Amino acid sequence: MKERINLLVNEYFPLIKSIREHIHKNPELSFQEKNTSAFVFKTLQEWGLTDITPMAGTGLVVLIKGKNPNKRVIALRSELDALPIVEKNKVPYCSVNEGVMHACGHDVHTASLLGAAKILYDLKDEWEGTVKLIIQPGEEKEPGGASIMIKEGVLENPKPELIIAQHVHPSMEVGKVGFKAGLYMASADEIYITVKGKGGHGALPQNCIDTVLLASHIVVGLQQVVSRNAYPIIPSVLSFGKFIANGATNVIPDEVRIEGTFRTMDETWRKKAHQRIQQIASGIAESMDGSAQVEISKGYPCLVNEPNLTAQCRSLAASYLTDNQVEELDLRMTAEDFSFFAQELPVCFYRLGTASVDGQNASPVHTATFDIDPDALKIGMGLMAWLAFKQLTN
């Protein structure tokens, strides 16, 4: 069967490569993926897959039924959305939508999933059960397309017993994949702080409540949330990337806005940290006769790979590739809305190497020069088809 899958991989590679390039060339932002969704819908229909249900606006749910379709149900997932980045790659499939780019590999994920779907559909008489494709919108933007699809019933009728997803990994060479059982990725929350005081002339600070100084003290003071409040063995990050004090060289503004992110890998500490951020920011502001309004937008939870399923998928990956092509992943402080699925059923979220052996195509995700070695699509679709096939035949 591995040989049959590989034959189909090689046969369909030019098609899947062209699909990936089409999606990459025509990126759309989170929850705006109307044309991408329509393209995927049409492509699946042309292949004979007609059990397709729209969900969460631009998302799609697709059922591929083998023999005895009610025997088992497993799910495979990909995403549709791109990022607000101006692409700098000089390639024929460069983004034609100015300021929008598939810089996180969702074009790769969807093209690979379509390739796996085509292979599994061709082999549907060789396995028992149902494969549920979850093609979601808005992974890059809160509240996350995964959470919306769950609320709309994507895990029901039929209910899958597990879900598998993959993600590009540009620091890993093409031909390799990586797995991490248990805790893998961090939670992610957005922090918005509005500092208010009394503006005025910069030459007369005694008549002001200096919001710039106050906000600066808050940014510095909040560093103790991680350095002095967090249990040292719990990974935690509190970073601020936006500080807007719209005054002038001699004007102290009435208001300053600060924005940042808090990430950790412990849900109990996460809740406590939110309280400390509130307390420290408000306390510092009040001590300087100002005020601080703190808003914390709770984002994605920690991503935990189910240990048994992940160990099984890792072993299957080694049987499809070789032991030397399967690596152990490190913890990551990045976040993924796939974590919402992990709270509902066993999941395995693994990484797909996409860098060329010669060092090309190694730009990190979320950068303007991100791209992949196209051969990654072969493993992207082949391994996912293999994992699904083995789940449904074991």
Structural notes for this entry:
By secondary structure, the protein is of the alpha/beta class. It has two domains: 276 residues, Zn peptidases (Aminopeptidase, 3-Layer(aba) Sandwich); 110 residues, Alpha-Beta Plaits (2-Layer Sandwich), CATH 3.30.70.360. It is 34% helix and 25% strand. An eight-stranded mixed β-sheet has the order 1-2-4-3-5-16-6-15, sandwiched between helices. A four-stranded antiparallel β-sheet has the order 10-12-8-13. Helix 1 packs across helix 10, helix 3 crosses helix 10 and helix 5 packs antiparallel against helix 7. The longest helix has 24 residues. The two termini are 13 Å apart. The model has no long low-confidence stretch (mean pLDDT 97).
- Examine the secondary-structure arrangement and name the CATH architecture of the largest domain: 3-Layer(aba) Sandwich
Kindly state the percentage of residues in helix: 25-40%
Instruction: Please tell me the overall pLDDT.
Output: 97
Termini separation = 13 Å
Multimeric state: single chain
Please give a handful of descriptors for the protein shown.
394 residues, alpha/beta, Aminopeptidase, Alpha-Beta Plaits, 2 domains, eight-stranded mixed sheet, four-stranded antiparallel sheet, 16 strands, elongated
Topology:
Elements: H1 2-25, H2 34-46, E1 52-55, E2 59-65, E3 73-79, H3 106-122, E4 130-136, H4 145-151, E5 163-173, E6 177-179, E7 182-185, E8 189-196, E9 200-201, H5 211-221, H6 224-229, E10 236-244, E11 251-252, E12 255-264, H7 267-287, E13 291-298, E14 303-305, H8 307-320, E15 326-328, H9 339-342, E16 347-355, H10 376-393
